[in-house]
Amino acid sequence: MINNAIPLRIAGVGYSVPKTVITNEDLTKLYDTSDVWIYSRTGIKERRIVSGNEGAFELGVEAAKKALSKSGIKSEDIEMIIVATSAPSQLYPAMGCRIQAALEIPNNIPAFDITAACSGLIYALSIARGYIASGMYKNILIVATDNNSKLLDWSDRTCSILFGDGAGAMVVTASDDGVDDIISIDIKSDGSIGDIIQLNLTGKNCPLVEPNEEQPLFIKMNGKEVYRFVARVLPEYVEKLIADAGMKAEDIDYLIPHQANLRIIQAVQERLGYSDEKVITNIKYYGNTSAASIPLAMVEGVENGKVKLGSTAILTGFGAGMTWGGCIVRLREGIC
Ligand code: COA
């Protein structure tokens, strides 16, 4: 961190999910699978998916409204919007600009999208932290929203069982009491293995030149390789993040991980020696909601009494890129 960095306060967190529930049983209408197969390999029983004209934008707006309302910061005081999304319905205008307009946030501030797939929330938080620490901006709205269900090949039974739709949002601000809610944050990527999760936007060449190879707009994933990579890298990474912060695993109250696969979460849990009560999961009901999954697990955990505020948590995520990241945060009373 830079010297004299301005500390950050997490002021409000919110989430939004679609109403429509698709169970594992429902998926048996699409292909040969079973609740037992899906649940035993992933920990997922059901997921929420968008229907009709609903999408990541609508979910994002809803989550942002909730985070703003909890934060006590007015939309006219927001100075930057960062949207982490890998499933925008339009590449431009950026979802950040559309959310700016929808929430009547002043029209002379920067608003942009970032693509770090399921690590998006942690990437966005890291960017926001830099701007706040430097004193350039004070109040930043982060929205993490994805609707993977529109980008899945619904005949691919290995990939389409995993994902659900949802949005999370955070309002962060310059801390006025000297306490930094980001105890530690780190983001990483390894592009050399980027092909293990891909979403191709190949487009179509000009008819005057040789045609290009076109690919359908579907998520393509080598599930086995993703699993191997994350199971190898993540537990050690999380352990190191805690040590580098000068802390011990037992100093932190909760692990709130990206909800991609219960077996991966359990591998991190084992490495940290955490009891089940310290590990917040809701993958069973939502599947993998990409960038939204960490704030969704956090706020839902508070709502159902699993997470007590006035505590600390380690957030960790991984996703296409491959990207990954982690963050040790203070969760103050009243943030959600
Ligand atoms: N229902 C029933 N059988 C299925 C199935 C399904 N939904 N999907 C695959 N199978 C079958 C395969 O056809 C294969 O059959 P075969 O042995 O006769 O060829 C068998 O089950 C094993 O398939 P495989 O792809 O090797 O499964 P797996 O044990 O690797 O599990 C995942 C698949 C996707 C659950 C697992 O690889 C995983 O969780 N990976 C991590 C993915 C992830 O986290 N992605 C998000 C990153 S942000």
Question: How would you explain this protein's 3D organization?
Answer:
It is a single chain. The protein folds into 2 domains: 8-174, 3-Layer(aba) Sandwich (Peroxisomal Thiolase, Chain A, domain 1), CATH 3.40.47; 182-331, Peroxisomal Thiolase, Chain A, domain 1. It has helices at 24-27, 35-42, 56-71, 95-102, 120-134, 223-244, 262-272, 283-286, 293-303; strands spanning 8-16, 21-23, 46-48, 80-84, 111-114, 140-147, 165-174, 182-189, 197-199, 219-221, 254-257, 311-319, 323-331. Helix content is 29%, strand content 23%. It has a 5-stranded mixed β-sheet, sandwiched between helices. A 4-stranded mixed β-sheet has the order 8-13-12-11, sandwiched between helices. The protein is α/β, with parallel strands linked by helices and 336 residues long. 48% of the residues are buried. Bound molecules: coenzyme A. Coenzyme A (COA) binds next to α2, α6 and β12.
